[in-house]
Amino acid sequence: xxxxxxxxxxxxxxxxxxxxxxxxxxxxxxxxxxxxxxxxxxxxxxxxxxxxxxxxxxxxxxxxxxxxxxxxxxxxxxxxxxxxxxxxxxxxxxxxxxxxxxxxxxxxxxxxxxxxxxxxxxxxxxxxxxxxxxxxxxxxxxxxxxxxxxxxxxxxxxxxxxxxxxxxxxxxxxxxxxxxxxxxxxxxxxxxxxxxxxxxxxxxxxxxxxxxxxxxxxxxxxxxxxxxxxxxxxxxxxxxxxxxxxxxxxxxxxxxxxxxxxxxxxxxxxxxxxxxxxx
Length: 279
Hints:
The chain contains ten helices and twelve strands. By secondary structure, it is α/β, with parallel strands linked by helices. The strands form four sheets. Strands 4-3-5-12-6 form a five-stranded mixed sheet, sandwiched between helices. Strand 3 (88-93), helix 5 (98-109) and strand 4 form a beta-alpha-beta unit.
């Protein structure tokens, strides 16, 4: 019946069996026979034919609107079926890695066949829990990743700015806030020494720098942050100054559960790696 409806609609729009046949890639007899079958099935005369033109009958004009709706619904059905048949990767990411996650998603959507990436904003703890529960396929997070997860496509984020309270109290600028699981050694120790050697381990892993800035504003200490953060966040109670030398960095990577590999995971790893080099 769909073929018959398609032929009827195209003839009605083109006002010609020959033009309709050319548009549909069919022979003119095939189009004529399809319309005839539809007229027999409905027991209605839908088209008036003569040597010069083809015109809709009143019944044909009424049914044309219904035919268009049926064909539109079928197109929608096929498009949704195609979408559902695509591989889907659920990717968790922290706010800092949002631009990278978006670029990787665009790359995979442009593949043949396309891979759909559904993004989920999540800090480290939430991302790890989602990975463990199988709610997401992979996550961009600070490394080292929690035990049981495999990581790849690593990249570094330079912490080249220092967030400090705009109105410091006593000792507010003498404490360096350090992300958990970051041993205060090497570059971190050198920076901490500049603030009297004092440091405080932050409860979170700084996946959400915006929340950690509340500690800075409250006078808990100073916090190394990436320049990207200073471009997107404006606060009256926190100021950002260059960190010289900018020798601190956080390492991020794509993490996934070793027990739940997905067929499209390597494509995601490649997309993230490519996105690190291109825009």
